[in-house]
Structure to design on (657 residues):
């Protein structure tokens, strides 16, 4: 059993430990930050559901002592939308990989954001496809290597924050696994936020992204993240095609707009129904 | 008595079954189901949502089911193809739900407004891997109502996605039907949760219990055992869950296979038909009888599990079987396997978007019978 600090044990499903994650993988840091957020918010675990897509990141729901769904690649937000609508009193947390959210699941990602349904998406961005062994992701920066861009990629990378903002997400934040304090702060902010929240966390995959691009071991990769991110507002020199090329981090939007289940409740009640959000 | 459209009968049957969640994506000829659900559900406290595609629609349905609702979606060919991954997920996770597929000519965009019966095999085998399946169909608006309602019962009894196959004509046809007053069944609640046995077993041969404050269920499309555990060598346990579900269907085969006989008692020549085609087949029987051919009809309402025993028992007493269907030979394959050598089976197919006329079916039955008689006299 990993040493997670006693306070977090009740939040974790110990039968499922150890995790599938490689030593040094950033996904464990992020999962820990989710557990810390649940603890800080003193959430009743019976009313939390953690969902995941498919990928190393998608395994997150297995490790939480809540009801959990490990769904299909890219489509987890559709399941989460149905679940939240069926029971709006639930706190619904969704773990997605960058391929999961921005390639195969990009369509679902933008529409969940557009509806502003009260879900909290934690986007584990390791710039690569981890689970399938290091293929190019839509977040792999140009000229970086993967097993399917062995000579360096020629595609520009997606920026999840830009996409979420454009699609209408009402809480949008980004941080890195280096930022140990910000991770749970942003995630709990997203959970508290009554609308669609997206927290992108730059994660390290030493096994594939690190090795294929000679970025060193996990501590070196984390260090790299620290050196290549700037606080939002400070980001004059951003080139998003460079690896984390001084990517802005911080909270980009936190805004109250009509939330989907509440709007649906209004509509239902206006028609004489008793749906409650 | 009310004049009801086929697609409307889906909605009415679903509501009578307690359906309170609908997620969909518009597609001809199923769209009216979605449009009516959009009108009906909000005022009843149910949920309607238009999703961004059909994968999302079925994903939302599955999520809602675990959230405690009775959920369904409806689509047609291209959308049904997209749904296959989530039909497999619903099967793997034993999630009860109902999928209506109003068939149109395919493959691909085909002819959106023209009827077909080309999804019979896809409805059974469309997702990868093995799975238990119940696939039903209907030939009248009243059937549509009844089979939709029945689909929900079976979805929850056997914990699987039930597929109801309609077609473009049946979806848009209007008929007078009597609507029985039924009160919707109560939904399973946390109180039903299988008396917290230890370890808790949300999968396998246990009733479906949605998420509640008392459960800590892990739902996953990964192979798992009855507790939901995916770790270690769960292959055999996962196979066992599948085998148990399949045998459950086998045991209840009589309850699940619905069929109708028409002028079968003394029939020498058997037409087997299903869905919209069964209407023409019934008229064909009358035409054949008038011209002195002792024909009868077996109309199948359950396509999968394939009603092998019923087919076999009748095949023993007839000289030949004809199966007309709006595809180029699908249900005729399991039919041939079931009949074995008991009597000659002929298929009659078309996939041009038109229905069979009774005359065409009668004619095909006559040609089939002549061929058989010639062969018999040749051998004599
Ligand atoms: C429909 C489908 N296509 C492909 C796959 C194979 N697959 C599994 S995980 C994955 C990518 C994972 O990458 P990402 O989403 O970035 O998550 P990570 O593993 O890096 O955390 C792929 C392509 C799949 N499971 N399902
Ligand atoms: S492959 Fe990469 S992302 Fe997956 S667990 Fe290993 S380090 Fe983490």
């Amino acid at each position: 059993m990993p040493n997670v600090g006693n306070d977090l044990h009740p939040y974790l499903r110990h039968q499922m430990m150890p995790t599938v994650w490689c030593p040094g993988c950033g996904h464990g840091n992020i999962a820990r930050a989710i557990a810390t957020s649940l603890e800080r918010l003193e959430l009743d675990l019976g009313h939390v559901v953690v969902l995941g897509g498919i990928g190393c990141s998608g395994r997150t729901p297995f490790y939480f002592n809540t009801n959990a769904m490990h769904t299909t690649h890219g489509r987890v937000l559709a399941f989460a939308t149905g679940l939240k609508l069926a029971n709006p009193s639930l706190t619904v947390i969704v773990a997605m990989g960058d391929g999961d959210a921005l390639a195969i699941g990009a369509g679902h990602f933008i529409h969940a954001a557009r509806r502003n349904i009260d879900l909290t998406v934690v986007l584990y961005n390791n710039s690569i496809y981890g689970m399938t062994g290091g293929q190019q992701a839509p977040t792999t920066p140009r000229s970086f290597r993967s097993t399917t861009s062995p000579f360096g990629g020629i595609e520009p990378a997606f920026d999840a924050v830009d996409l979420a903002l454009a699609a209408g997400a009402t809480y949008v934040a980004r941080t890195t696994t280096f930022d140990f304090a910000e991770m749970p702060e942003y995630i709990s902010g997203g959970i508290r936020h009554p609308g669609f929240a997206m927290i992108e966390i730059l994660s390290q995959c030493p096994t594939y992204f690190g090795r294929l691009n000679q970025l060193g071991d996990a501590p070196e990769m984390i260090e790299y993240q620290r050196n290549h991110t700037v606080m939002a507002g400070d980001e004059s020199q951003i080139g998003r095609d460079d690896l984390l090329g001084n990517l802005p981090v911080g909270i980009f939007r936190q805004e109250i707009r009509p939330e989907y289940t509440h709007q649906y409740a209004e509509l239902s009640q206006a028609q004489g129904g008793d749906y409650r959000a | 008595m009310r004049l009801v459209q086929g697609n409307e009968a889906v909605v009415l049957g679903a509501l009578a079954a307690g359906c309170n969640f609908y997620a969909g994506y518009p597609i001809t000829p199923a769209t009216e189901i979605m449009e009516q659900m959009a009108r009906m559900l909000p005022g009843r406290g149910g949920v309607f949502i238009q999703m961004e595609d059909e994968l999302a629609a079925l994903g939302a349905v599955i999520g809602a089911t675990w959230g405690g609702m009775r959920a369904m979606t409806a689509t047609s060919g291209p959308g049904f193809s997209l749904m296959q991954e989530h039909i497999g997920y619903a099967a793997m996770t034993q999630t009860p739900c109902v999928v209506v597929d109003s068939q149109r000519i395919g493959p691909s965009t085909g002819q959106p407004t023209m009827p077909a019966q080309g999804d019979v095999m896809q409805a059974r085998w469309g997702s990868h891997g093995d799975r238990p399946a119940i696939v039903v169909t209907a030939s009248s608006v009243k059937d549509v109502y009844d089979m939709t309602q029945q689909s929900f019962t079976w979805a929850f009894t056997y914990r699987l996605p039930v597929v109801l196959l309609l077609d473009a004509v049946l979806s848009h046809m209007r008929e007078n039907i009597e609507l029985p007053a039924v009160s919707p069944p109560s939904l399973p609640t946390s109180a039903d949760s299988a008396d917290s046995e230890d370890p808790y077993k949300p999968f396998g041969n246990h009733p479906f219990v949605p998420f509640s404050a008392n459960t800590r269920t892990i739902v996953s499309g990964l192979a798992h055992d009855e507790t939901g555990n995916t770790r270690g060598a769960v292959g055999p346990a996962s196979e066992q869950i599948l085998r148990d579900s399949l045998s459950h269907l086998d045991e209840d085969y009589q309850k699940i296979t619905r069929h109708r006989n028409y002028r079968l008692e003394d029939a020498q020549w058997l037409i087997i038909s299903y869905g919209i085609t069964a209407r023409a087949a019934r008229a064909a029987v009358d035409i054949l009888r008038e011209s002195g051919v002792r024909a009868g009809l077996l109309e199948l309402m359950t396509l999968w599990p394939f009603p092998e025993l019923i087919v076999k028992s009748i095949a023993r007493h007839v000289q030949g079987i004809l199966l007309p269907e709006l595809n180029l030979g699908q249900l005729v394959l399991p039919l041939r396997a079931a009949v074995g050598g008991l009597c000659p089976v002929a298929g009659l197919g078309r996939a041009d978007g038109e229905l069979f006329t009774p005359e065409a079916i009668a004619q095909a039955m006559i040609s089939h019978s002549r061929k058989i008689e010639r062969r018999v006299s040749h051998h004599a």
